[in-house]
Design goal:
Layout: E1 12-23, E2 26-38, E3 43-47, H1 54-60, E4 69-78, E5 81-84, H2 91-101, E6 102-105, H3 109-112, H4 119-125, H5 139-145, H6 151-156, H7 164-177, E7 182-186, H8 194-211, E8 214-219, H9 222-228, E9 231-236, E10 239-245, H10 246-251, H11 256-263, H12 303-307, E11 313-315, E12 318-320, H13 323-326, H14 329-339, H15 346-354
Parallel strand pairs: 3-8, 3-9, 6-7, 7-8
Antiparallel strand pairs: 1-2, 1-4, 4-5, 9-10, 10-12, 11-12
Helix pairs in contact: 7-8
The structure holds adenosine-5'-triphosphate.
Region (Disordered): 327-362
GO molecular function: ATP binding; ATP hydrolysis activity
Membrane topology: Peripheral membrane protein
Length: 362
């Protein structure tokens, strides 16, 4: 284990992180002051429409973004060590931090594995460089644990000889073999047969719990989130707009975007009621959004929502960026009346810390 990581620090902490991509059509802002914290061992879902910035946030955790990505502002730290922002680690210390703290499970398990190498060799290499290597258990045992029966055949196989479900189980075993402190799983069941999704997800969550690894699950699947995660963070327009305990947030969503997501969920409709689609299209940002990125689609938008950026504030046991909940008295009481959300005293502390409407210099 990297001696300089702090075991009590959040495994992942982002504060006002801004990331842009340089494209032929100019800059595209993918993270627009994203703030999020994942505690050791926590199972957290990161949800949001396509393009909201989930994968960018996940890859930023290891400073593994595409070469056209630019860090414009804000901080990110992994197990207490800065990855973006002042004093950020680089070179070998960064590689050691990734090796010791981070694991990834990707959407397409077969392409995530090396097509030219048998599974046994890939699993053995997955632990190379770890000081604890000699304490590692045999790879066959790890495969049995993840529910693979014909272990010797799997170990002899090349990735293309495995089914999607088998390859994803191997991917999970490989990622957890290093005993990372944070596993980032980006749509881990999207390429797997629908009948296996639940099994794979249950396996992923239970293995993380067994080894004490935090999980950041990037997904569109709110049903899976409801069943398997403790916390949910909702992204919109490159920001985390609501973050709190999963059951509370899904049962009583506060941010109008979270409400719309939950209302659009198949099964959320009452008999005879039409499923609600979220009207409008998600934003594509080229620079900092001047107000709330959801304002053009928000049924409850206030005049200030388009012009003033809502701060990330603690409200009633969760974090929110929404003027309806953290803005003026009138708007707050309207929101409270609708949702029963009371303002948390920590709100004031948080607002003092962030400053009303503060913007990251670009
Ligand atoms: N390398 C890149 N170059 C240019 N733009 C990019 C690049 N990677 C991502 N983007 C853009 O950044 C925005 C956020 O993308 P990102 O993949 O992080 O979103 P996402 O929420 O993970 O989406 P999805 O759910 O579809 O995977 C999108 O507009 C996307 O097109």
């Amino acid at each position: 284990m990297n001696p300089e990581t702090d075991p009590s620090a959040p495994v992942l902490a982002l504060s006002d992180l801004v990331v842009e991509y340089a494209t032929r059509h100019g800059r595209l802002r993918s993270l627009d002051e994203a703030t999020l914290s994942v505690a050791p061992g926590q199972i957290v879902a990161l949800v949001g429409e396509s393009g909201s910035g989930k994968s960018t946030l996940g890859m930023a955790a290891g400073r593994l973004l595409a070469s056209n990505a630019l860090h414009v502002g804000g901080r990110l730290s992994l197990a207490g060590r800065p990855v973006y922002g002042s004093g950020a680690v680089d070179g070998e210390p960064l590689r050691a931090l990734r090796r010791d703290v981070l694991g990834f499970v990707f959407q397409n398990p077969v392409t995530a594995l090396d097509p030219t190498m048998r599974i046994r060799r890939q699993m053995e290499l997955a632990c190379r460089g770890r000081r604890e290597d000699r304490h590692e258990r045999p790879v066959a045992e790890l495969l049995q644990e993840i529910g693979l029966s014909d272990v010797s055949r799997v170990l002899r196989s090349y990735p293309h000889e495995l089914s999607g479900g088998m390859a994803q189980r191997v991917g999970i075993a490989m990622a957890l073999r290093r005993r990372p402190r944070l596993l980032i799983a980006d749509e881990p069941t999207a390429a797997v047969d629908a009948t296996l999704r639940e099994q794979i997800l249950r396996l992923l969550v239970s293995r993380c719990r067994e080894v004490g690894c935090a999980l950041l699950l990037l997904t569109h699947d709110l049903h899976a989130v409801a069943q398997h995660t403790e916390q949910i963070a909702v992204m919109y327009g490159g920001r985390v707009i609501e973050h709190g305990p999963t059951a509370e947030v899904l049962d009583h969503p506060s941010h109008p975007y979270t409400r719309a997501l939950v209302a659009a969920l198949p099964g959320a409709e009452k008999p005879g009621q039409r499923l609600e689609a979220i009207r409008g299209i998600p934003p594509v940002l080229h620079t900092a959004c001047p107000g709330c990125a959801f304002a053009p689609r928000c049924p409850d938008a206030l005049p200030e929502c388009r012009s003033t950026r809502p701060v990330y504030a603690a409200v009633g046991g969760r974090k929110l960026t929404c003027h309806l909940h953290t803005g003026g008295t009138a708007s707050r009481s309207a929101a409270s009346a609708r949702n029963g959300a009371d303002r948390d005293p920590a709100d004031d502390a948080d607002r003092d810390h962030h400053g009303q409407g503060r913007r990251t210099a670009t």
